[in-house]
Amino acid sequence: MDNALILAQTHDHVRALLQGESSGHDWWHVYRVWRNAAHIATDERVDLFVVELAALLHDIADWKFHGGDVTAGPHAARTWLDTLTVDETVIAHVCEIIATMSFKGAGVASAMRTREGMVVQDADRLDAIGAIGIARTFAYGGHMNRAIWDPDRAPQPHASPEDYLAGTGSTIDHFYEKLLLLKDRMNTATARRLAEERHAFMELYLERFYAEWEGAL
Ligand code: NI
C-alpha cells in the first residue's frame, strides 16, 4: 500500500473514532494538529510520512483517559498500523512519538528524541494554547467536573505524572499548571514564533477574566 493511501485510510479511521468526542480531544483537534505539524515540518528536515501518521494517531487512546497508562496510545496505534502494510521502523518511530509527547506536569520532563517527534509535540502544544487552547481547556474542565475558577485556591506545579493526573484544580489553575508554560517548551523556531502570539492572547484573556470577575468591566 502506498503512503498516500495509508494516510487516507488512517485519516478516515481516526475521524470515525473521535467524531463527537467532548473533552477537547475530538477529531477536529487531531485535524488541527495534523495541519500544524505539516506546516511546521516545511521548515524542518523530517520524514513527513512519520510526522503525519503520528499526528493523526496521537490521541486515539490518550493516557489521561486510560488511568495514566502511557502504553495505551502506542498500543492502539500499532494495532491499527499492523492492519496496513507499514514498515516496522515507521511503526516503531510513530509509537515512540505517541508514547513520549504528552505534557505530564510542570515538573516532568518530556523531551523528544527525534526531530519528527519534536514537530508533532509542538503541533499538539500549539493546539493547547491561544483561542483554541482556551476553548479546549474549558471543555476539558467541564468533562472532568472542574470549577471554572476558585479564587481561594492557588495553582499547583505538579512534580509527577501521578500528581498531574490526580489534580483537581480549577480550569483557570490549568492555565498556570500547563498552558502558560508551553511557549518556553517548544522545540522548533516556527512553533516558538506561533506560540508567542497565542501566549500573549491568553494573557490578555486572563486579564479580562479577572477584571470581569470583580465586576470592573
Ligand atoms: Ni493531542
Radius of gyration: 17 Å
Summarize the helix and strand pattern as letters.
HHHHHHHHHH
Number of helices: 10
Report the count of strand segments: 0
Q: Cα distance, first to last residue? A: 59 Å
Largest pleated sheet: none
What are the salient characteristics of this protein?
binds nickel (II) ion, 217 residues, 10 helices, 59% helix
Topology:
Layout: H1 3-18, H2 27-41, H3 48-57, H4 72-82, H5 88-100, H6 115-126, H7 130-143, H8 161-166, H9 171-177, H10 189-213
Description:
It contains 10 helices and no strands. The protein is an all-alpha fold and 217 residues long. Helix 4 packs antiparallel against helix 5. 37% of the residues are buried. Bound molecules: nickel (II) ion (NI).
Question: Briefly, what is this?
Answer:
Helix content is about 60%, strand content about 0%.
